[in-house]
């Protein structure tokens, strides 16, 4: 099963009831592809779409004092965007970049707002997705307080084993809040 049917099933599971206006949702989902290295959106520009990742890996990153910092990764069957920019329609502080070739769907801001005006259920789905994203961010922040870098790496591997195959060590280390050399030591220790 591919494409919009997976999205429908995911949203329906989140909603815990049938989606009444699925055809309205489906109509605003635009297929997109990005080669590895391309940006889905860039810092300094307003994020005008939320993306559903069907295949591939996207990273959310920022530049601070000339240093590239990976803040998040979106894996298959995740939604991603520069949420603060998308919600406020102001320039983003982060960029989204395809780590691998990415295919999925874009839902543009104006179309989504129109759908919200048309369907109370769509508004509810939007709220539930926002709540999920909040919980992801909360749990990530909490992990920095409660777990060591090694424990965070182990958790990342458990949740997304494809990480080591597709994401450069430098980006994984940045995401974990450590230097690449520290990640190399963690990986070496795990293999012994």
From TrEMBL:
Cyclic nucleotide-binding domain location: 29-102
Molecular function as annotated in GO: kinase activity
UniProt entry keywords in alphabetical sequence: Kinase, Transferase
InterPro entries hit by this protein: cNMP-bd_dom (IPR000595), cNMP-bd_dom_sf (IPR018490), RmlC-like_jellyroll (IPR014710)
Domain of life: Bacteria
PROSITE patterns: CNMP_BINDING_3
Pfam families per record: cNMP_binding (PF00027)
Protein's name in the database: cAMP-binding domain of CRP or a regulatory subunit of cAMP-dependent protein kinases
Organism: Chitinophaga ginsengisegetis
Highest classification ranks of the organism: Bacteria, Pseudomonadati, Bacteroidota, Chitinophagia, Chitinophagales
């Amino acid at each position: 099963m591919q494409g919009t049917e997976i999205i429908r099933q995911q949203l329906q599971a989140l909603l815990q009831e049938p989606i009444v206006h699925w055809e309205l949702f489906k109509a605003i989902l635009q297929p997109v592809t990005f080669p590895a290295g391309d940006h889905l959106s860039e810092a300094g520009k307003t994020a005008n779409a939320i993306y559903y990742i069907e295949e591939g890996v996207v990273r959310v990153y920022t530049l601070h004092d000339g240093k590239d910092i990976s803040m998040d990764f979106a894996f298959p069957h995740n939604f991603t965007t520069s949420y603060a920019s998308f919600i406020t329609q102001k320039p983003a502080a982060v960029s989204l970049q395809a780590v691998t070739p990415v295919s999925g769907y874009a839902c543009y801001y104006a179309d989504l707002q129109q759908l919200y005006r048309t369907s109370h259920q769509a508004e509810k789905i939007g709220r539930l997705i926002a709540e999920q994203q909040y919980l992801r961010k909360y749990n990530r922040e909490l992990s920095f307080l409660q777990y060591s870098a090694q424990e965070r790496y182990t958790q990342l591997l458990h949740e997304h084993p494809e990480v080591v195959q597709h994401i450069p060590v430098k980006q994984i280390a940045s995401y974990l809040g450590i230097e690449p050399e520290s990640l190399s030591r963690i990986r070496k220790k795990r293999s012994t």
